[in-house]
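Justification of computing resources. Each target in the renewal requires a structure prediction run like the one illustrated here; the chain below, 94 residues long, is used simply to show the kind of job we budget for.
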Amino acid sequence: METTRIPLTLNREEREVEASLFVGAQDTYLIVYGIALRTTQGQKTHSGHLWLKAQAPGHRYSTRDITDIGYSGMRGNGHGMRSQFRYIGFFPAD
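Resulting structure tokens:
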């Protein structure tokens, strides 16, 4: 899968992240892995990934561009909408 680097802002923190390019039947998406997620119900932080609709080069991505959120560890694996998560952010930098 082809990858690219994009600027992504989550919780007022901007980072340049690696995103995988996915070409669908009608749209092109970017998938960003290694995102910290917390549901509206839980206290634990889990690892997940974001699906972003691809925009023109130079676009600064944010939570407004999220089309789907995938996660693991929250009673299994799955996906959800932005409204199901109270925290969507980056894990601490090393």
